Amino acid sequence: xxxxxxxxxxxxxxxxxxxxxxxxxxxxxxxxxxxxxxxxxxxxxxxxxxxxxxxxxxxxxxxxxxxxxxxxxxxxxxxxxxxxxxxxxxxxxxxxxxxxxxxxxxxxxxxxxxxxxxxxxxxxxxxxxxxxxxxxxxxxxxxxxxxxxxxxxxxxxxxxxxxxxxxxxxxxxxxxxxxxxxxxxxxxxxxxxxxxxxxxxxxxxxxxxxxxxxxxxxxxxxxxxxxxxxxxxxxxxxxxxxxxxxxxxxxxxxxxxxxxxxxxxxxxxxxxxxxxxxxxxxxxxxxxxx
Length: 290
What we know:
Layout: H1 3-13, H2 17-20, E1 33-39, E2 44-51, E3 59-66, H3 74-88, E4 93-102, H4 116-119, E5 124-128, H5 140-147, H6 152-169, H7 172-189, H8 195-202, H9 210-243, H10 249-256, H11 260-269, H12 276-289
């Protein structure tokens, strides 16, 4: 399920949502602008950055990380990214804070000792969605966040409830945004269902929403990329067979797991390979960087 894009859309639509999760939000929370930034040398992608209003300079910058899978190097990456970005933009900001959103405590990195002081400071907020409360008693936007975490059987019931609630509580222009977000979550959760089955489940017509068109387009783009990856893998396997000989199952699987960009890089690098060691070193280095 593409939770990263779902939360990105949530924060784009409701920038103030992040601050509703905090005990002590800034007084000017409604003036913050959600954005994503890139930090070069080394290359980092920071998906969630809430920038203070330009009239307040320097202001406090908020970082946001949504983590739904176990990552034992998450804090290494998060703090490296935010400190590098803060360093390069020091004149713009007076301070930084970070919000890390987990579905539950079991998803959090186990070894937190090197970051104990940071994690227990006022600058770091860890949010566990399953501890926020009953989905039907939460503010609507936060309830949509929680919808991404619950099991499929409950999700269908709660999605329909939230759709009805949005129609009762929100003006039409905001209600449409909630409808599209809920629809997105349901379509990703129930990929095995047909469009008609999802429509019947929710009681709406999906083809009338923008998200339906986006998901169809995303499916076509993913299909094209998978086709390109398959062609690239096939060519690389043939070239490697001639360059370094027969591949072990482990090496073969490592190559299968490469992204299209990584496959293209390997296609260039293998021209200089003369032995299996060259390939194994390349794969080890590539995995370390990613």
